[in-house]
Amino acid sequence: MKPVQPDNWPRPSGYSNGIKAEGEVLYVAGQVGWDASETIVGDDLVDQIRQALENIVSIVRAAGAEPSSLVRMSWYVTDVDEYRRRKRDIGAVYRDVIGAHYPAMTLLGVAELLEEGAKVEIEATAVLP
């Protein structure tokens, strides 16, 4: 995998503008902050993000890859202002679960998510080694 960045653009913080990769593709459905019993881990956005990321990593590992195989992530949050306020905490959780790997990412604010109590849903794409 190789980040793709136009020469005259500043490097983005916390993600890549593009990722170039070859291999078998794994599409990970949107993951919310619930555990294996499908129970939301609590009302805290950062805790839910940690769990959603851990769910993604579990799926990626089940496919025989590691978090560094992630090439794209789309984040859906119900409160963009809370995301902005908690950005440092979210960044720390991200690095703790995913590491210093920053795929192409998008974040969207949405009115609500299907699962009651969910504040975040993250879908991902990985290219397997």
Q: What does this molecule look like?
A:
27% of the residues lie in helices and 29% in strands. It is an alpha+beta fold. A four-stranded mixed sheet has the order 3-6-4-5. A two-stranded antiparallel sheet has the order 1-2. Helix 1 (45-62) runs parallel beside helix 3 (87-97).
Shape: globular
Whole-number radius of gyration? 14 Å
Distance between the termini: 10 Å
CATH topology-level fold name: 60s Ribosomal Protein L30, Chain: A
Strand content: 25-35%
Number of individual domains = 1
The helix/strand class is: alpha+beta
Under CATH at level 1, the class stands as: Alpha Beta
Largest sheet: number of strands, sense, barrel closure = 4 strands, mixed
What is the correct CATH architecture? 2-Layer Sandwich
Q: How many E-type strands? A: 6
**Average pLDDT for all residues:** 96
The amount of helix comes to 25-40%
- Run of helices and strands: EEEHEHHEE
* Low-confidence region ranges: none
List the strand order in the largest sheet: 3-6-4-5
Report the CATH superfamily: RutC-like
Number of helices: 3
Topology:
Elements: E1 2-4, E2 18-20, E3 24-32, H1 45-62, E4 70-77, H2 80-85, H3 87-97, E5 104-109, E6 120-128
Parallel strand pairs: 4-5
Antiparallel strand pairs: 1-2, 3-6, 4-6
Helix pairs in contact: 1-3
Feature tags:
129 residues, alpha+beta, 60s Ribosomal Protein L30, Chain: A, four-stranded mixed sheet, two-stranded antiparallel ribbon, globular
